[in-house]
Structures are given as structure tokens and as C-alpha cells.
Amino acid sequence: MTEAHVGLDVAFMAAETHRPDDVPAGTSLTSLVEKRSAAGLRLLNNRLPDDFPHQVDRGDVGDALTQLALGEVIRRTISGQRGSTIREALLLGADWNQVAAALDTTVLAAADELRVWAEGQRTLYHRFRAEDPQTQIGLDDEAHAAMMGAVDAALEQAAVSARDTHAERSPRLRAAVAAAPMVDTVGELRALLEQLPDEMPLSLDDHHRALPGEENQVHTIHPRLVAVVSGLATEAESKQPGLMLTQVYVPFPAEAEEQAAVATRDDLPAYGELARAAHYLQRGDLRPGLKDVAEVLEELAHLVGEVAADFTEHDEDGSTLRVEAKRITHAAERVGKLADEVEEVAE
User: Fold this and answer.
1) Could you report the per-residue pLDDT of 46-82, keeping only the tens digit for each?
2) Separation between Cα atoms, residue 287 and residue 343, nearest integer Å
């Protein structure tokens, strides 16, 4: 350490430090830790009894602020060094599994940290070179390309690992989910989740499902495995199993086997009219689809003419909205009639 750096650290140790901005640029990490530890020791002395027999320095509010400020500076300093340290570890012979383990993260996350750091360093290099061609700060194109090669290797490794893990787990996961066609309680869901990996993606179906035309139905949850794409449009793009929870209405009363058979069907239309209309129309089933559209329009007419009209400010009696509601009602009637006519033509 040069005399200038020694003088800088001595001045820093004696100065008041209550904000991160109070720390001079170039202050060593050792000095940051030493000063924070000293403040922490004084704060720790506050826990000693008032009649403690030995002379000790007790902490004050300044020490507490110093601990907070220096803790933040240390966090920023270490965080800013992560990318360069990952690079150094790789150059010295560490593999990606070791790097990820050291950071307590995944290979993909560690590789992404290196990628972000390398991109920033290349930008820094070209910016300084534009100001002074002799400046060698950051990563030149060759060094940046080497880092991108390391990142690509990590992505490929992660993709292979994901495929291997998927192949190994798939039979067990399929069996666990198939054994629970319906989940009706928190306990049943917990028992299923305990058999699945913590990192498995979880999603909810957009719509409730139900048997069309069935009057007596009860609600249940049907868990199923779906394919989830990770690393989209990258070298690591791969599919992995995910858990989707679908809300289903099943017949009641009925045997458990019959209810499970309904819950596991993948052709059930949505329970709500709008989603169900899309389900039918996208399959060319015009009559049921248009009937559902008519029901949606009738519900909209009710919302506009009865609900919204009671809260309008510029139209005290809501007459304008009620007129629009009547138009929507007429549209519903026309669509409903058209549904029957289209069916007749189709026949």
C-alpha cells in the first residue's frame, strides 16, 4: 500500500461516517470492515451492566449510523466485485458448479451475473478508448468474447442438466400427480407438493372447467403436469415439467372414480360464458358459442343499465346508460336468434 493510500485510510478511520457518500473513493475493504467492527464493538459494550468493573467505550447513535452506512458500502463493494471474481475463478480453473456453489446459487444465475458484468465492462472499455486510445479500462472485444464463450458453456451445461433431471424425474413426477386427480383440501395439496421438487414451476389455469349442461356439480382442483419452457431463445432453451392447478366442477352425487374421470378430461369447456364461448367458437361449434356470447351480452346490458347507471354523475337518472343497455340487449337477442339460424343452415 502506498503512503497516499495509508494516509487516506488513516483520515477515513478518524472521520465521521454516517452515510455511504462519506466514504472516500479508493477506501480499502479492509479499512471499511475495521471501522465498522470498531463501531460494532462499542455498540456491543452497551449491553454490559452499568457497574461493569472495567473501563470500556460505549456506543452512541453515531456508531449505529456508522454501522449502517459502512454495511451498505461493503455490500455495494462486494456486489460490484462479483462479476470480476467469477471471471477470475474461471480463469484460475474453477468450473461452473464450483462457482455456483460458492455463490449459493444456480449455474444459470452465476452465468447471467458474468454476462451482465462483461457487457458493462465492454461498454466501459469502448467509452474510455473513445476519450483516450491509450486507456485500458474494462474488457476489449477479445476478452469480452472469451467471457461470452464461458457463459455459453454454462448455458449448455445447464440445458444438459435440465434434460437429464427431467428424464430422471419424469416417471416419478407423473406417478405422483396421477395419484391425485382431485385435490379438495389443503392437506391433500400439501401431501402432493411434498413429492414434487421445490423449483418446479407452478401455474393456475386461466378458467374454471365444467361439464356443459350438467346441473349438479361440485368444485374441485385437478393438478396436472405441463411442459414449461425455460431459457427461451437461448442456448439453454429446454422444457421442464411444471404443475398446473385447474379448477373443475364435477358431477354430484357421483362415485369418486366418476368424478375423477371428469376432472382429468382435457376437453372440458370453461365454466364462464365468455371463456366458454371462445372455446366453442374456436372449434367451429357455432350454436353453443353464439348462445354463450348472447348470455355475455345480456350480462353486460345488466351491468351498464342497472349497476353503472346508478353511479353516474353527469347523467343523474342514468338514462343515457340505460339507452345503451337496451341496445346491448337487442344485440344479445339478435345473436341468440342467429345461433339458431346458423345451426339450421349447418344441418
Assistant:
1) 999 988 999 999 999 999 999 999 999 999 999 888 9
2) 6
**327 shares its domain with 217:** no
Give, in order, the Cα–Cα distances in Å from 203 to each of 3, 192, 228, 249, 312: 60, 15, 10, 19, 39
Query: Strands 209-210 and 217-230, how do they pair?
Result: unpaired
In terms of pTM, does the model score above 0.85? no
Q: Which domain holds residue 335?
A: 272-347
Phi, psi of 31 (to 5 degrees): -65, -40
H or E segment to which residue 102 belongs: helix 96-103
DSSP 232-275: TTSTT-EEEEEEEEEEEEEESS--HHHHHHHHT-S-PPBSSHHH
Per the structure, the count of domains in the chain is 3
277 and 241 in a common domain:
no
Average confidence (pLDDT) over 290-300 = 88
| Sign of the torsion angle spanned by Cα atoms 74, 77, 83, 86 | negative
